[in-house]
Specification:
With 258 residues, the protein is an alpha+beta fold. It has one domain: paralog of FGE (formylglycine-generating enzyme). Helices cover 20% and strands 19% of the residues. It is built from seven helices and twelve strands. Strands 1-4-12-7 form a four-stranded antiparallel beta sheet. The radius of gyration is 17 Å and the shape is globular. The two termini are 33 Å apart. It holds the Pfam family FGE-sulfatase. This is Formylglycine-generating enzyme family protein. GO terms for molecular function: formylglycine-generating oxidase activity. InterPro entries: CTDL_fold, Sulfatase_Mod_Factor_Kinase, SUMF_dom, SUMF_sf.
């Protein structure tokens, strides 16, 4: 069993301020990965790993929190043929075996926000979900031109459809990127703070963009154990309703000083 104190103290990695061109750099992107546009970000810190099942379990134990999957109609899981909502599925039962070191899944956007409020109290920092720009800048080792997080060699850095099997793998087993971050490509999708806007890349401000001011869907990034190599590129974007939960979707914190 993992030491819960170590699990919840999730190591935070400093990401220096800087500028980069956000969007696909390899000519392989979908329409919403363009146009490439200049973005400049202030310094922030981001968790070395996605939030693990062990850390989420401590949050639940201390607060009595019940996720949207547990209060509602479950979580989408893959039954070997198709993705289906299973009313019995939740972060505790995602359809495959996990231990404390696996990334937590089956968490809705609001579940992630609730965890981060608790995590902020534990750390004394201001903690939240990363903006989409912060996520991509961090995934690309501080804005470098990389197809996957830390490398153009997908198998070196990512768990995905060709090598993961039928579910998540323990966080931190593949090579980290240039900032020391693990699992930014593959293993689990990660919620961001941003609403999705189809034209936002055309309208995005340069400095610290935070996405549209409102919307219907929230963005998540990074791909998962289920996706092919094209779907785990650092510029690839996906989105869904904030109440969505899936056995391939988790999150990680960004924190700053209060």
């Amino acid at each position: 069993m993992a030491d819960r104190r170590k699990v919840v103290s999730a190591e935070l990695i400093a990401v220096p301020a800087g500028c980069f061109q956000m969007g696909d750099s390899f000519g392989e992107g979908y329409f919403n990965e363009y146009p490439r546009h200049d973005v400049c970000l202030s310094r922030f810190t981001i968790a070395k790993l996605p939030v693990t099942r062990g850390a989420f379990s401590q949050f639940v134990t201390e607060t009595g929190y019940r996720t949207e999957a547990e209060k509602g109609d479950g979580c989408a899981i893959f039954d070997g043929k198709a993705w289906k909502k299973n009313p019995a599925a939740s972060w505790q039962n995602p359809g495959f075996a996990q231990d404390d070191g696996h990334p937590v899944v089956c968490v809705a956007w609001h579940d992630a926000v609730a965890y981060l409020q608790w995590f902020a109290g534990k750390t004394g920092l201001a903690c939240r979900l990363p903006t989409e720009a912060e996520w991509e800048y961090a995934a690309r080792s501080g804005g470098k031109i990389e197809k996957y997080a830390g490398s153009n060699d997908v198998d070196a850095v990512a768990w995905y459809a060709a090598n993961a099997g039928d579910g998540t793998r323990p966080a931190g087993e593949k090579q980290p990127n240039g900032l020391g971050l693990y699992d930014m490509s593959g293993n689990v999708w990660q919620w961001t703070a941003d609403w999705y806007g189809e034209k936002y890349y055309q309208e995005s401000p340069v400095n610290n963009p935070t996405g549209p001011i409102n919307g219907t869907n929230r963005v998540y990034r990074g791909g998962s154990w289920f996706y092919d190599r094209k779907g785990i590129r650092v510029s690839y974007r996906d989105f869904y309703l904030p109440g969505f939960r899936s056995s391939q979707l988790g999150f990680r914190p960004v924190c700053t000083d209060k």
